[in-house]
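Hi support team,

I've been running sequence recovery on a batch of backbones for a student project. Most finish fine, but this one hangs at about 90% for roughly twenty minutes before it completes. I'm not sure whether the input is malformed or the queue is just slow. I've pasted the structure tokens below so you can try to reproduce it. Let me know if you need the job ID as well.

Thanks,
M.K.
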């Protein structure tokens, strides 16, 4: 079973629908015991880093997620991926979960061409820089769907794939041990995203 963490900031319905379309047993939950019993965990998220961390803290699930990440595959999606890092700098500095080394910084500040729109929104090709079982059904150059204003930096050792936006190589996929993250939304990335979710379910 794949447990989707419900902490009030996730795109839960479309993610759950995508997993069910693949025939995967899925449950949206904020129950610690169900997270412990799950085979895999997905941490979704949309919104601002600090607000999401506060809502996650309020569930009491942070130590459970950190402990389970040492035992089973965990996938963070969009803001859920950003929360995996050490810290985020959206409206101040906020602690992350510390599961992937690095920090989350302002995309607009990194862009040389200030006319480029932020949030970075829409389809962008994925450049795979390290092979990984998560890419079992995905080829280099396939397009995925992004919506974000901040991105992960100082995380090259954990980076599996990037997408170019202006002069910035946006961190698209990361991995550290049992923990994976995608800055893009697999559940909004058509057939490519479904294939990536299927690979995650087989990890």
């Amino acid at each position: 079973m794949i447990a989707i963490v419900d902490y009030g900031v996730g795109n839960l319905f479309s993610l759950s629908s995508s997993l069910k379309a693949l025939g995967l047993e899925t449950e949206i939950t904020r129950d610690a015991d169900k997270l412990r019993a799950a085979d895999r965990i997905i941490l979704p998220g949309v919104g601002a880093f600090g607000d999401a961390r506060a809502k996650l803290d309020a569930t009491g699930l942070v130590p459970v997620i950190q402990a389970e990440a040492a035992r089973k595959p965990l996938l963070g999606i969009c803001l859920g991926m950003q929360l995996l890092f050490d810290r985020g700098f959206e409206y101040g500095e906020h602690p992350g979960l510390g599961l992937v080394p690095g920090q989350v910084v302002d995309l607009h500040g990194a862009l040389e061409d200030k006319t480029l729109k932020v949030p970075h929104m829409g389809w962008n090709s994925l450049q795979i820089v390290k092979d990984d079982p998560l890419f079992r059904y995905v080829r280099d150059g396939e397009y995925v769907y992004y919506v974000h204003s901040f991105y992960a930096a100082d995380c090259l050792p954990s980076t599996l794939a990037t997408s170019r936006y202006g002069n910035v190589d946006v961190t698209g996929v990361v991995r550290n041990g049992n923990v994976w993250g995608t800055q893009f939304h697999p559940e909004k990335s058509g057939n490519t995203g479904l294939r990536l979710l299927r690979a995650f379910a087989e990890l």
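--
Follow-up from support: It reproduced on our side and the slowdown came from queue contention, not your input. The mean pLDDT is 97. No action needed from you.
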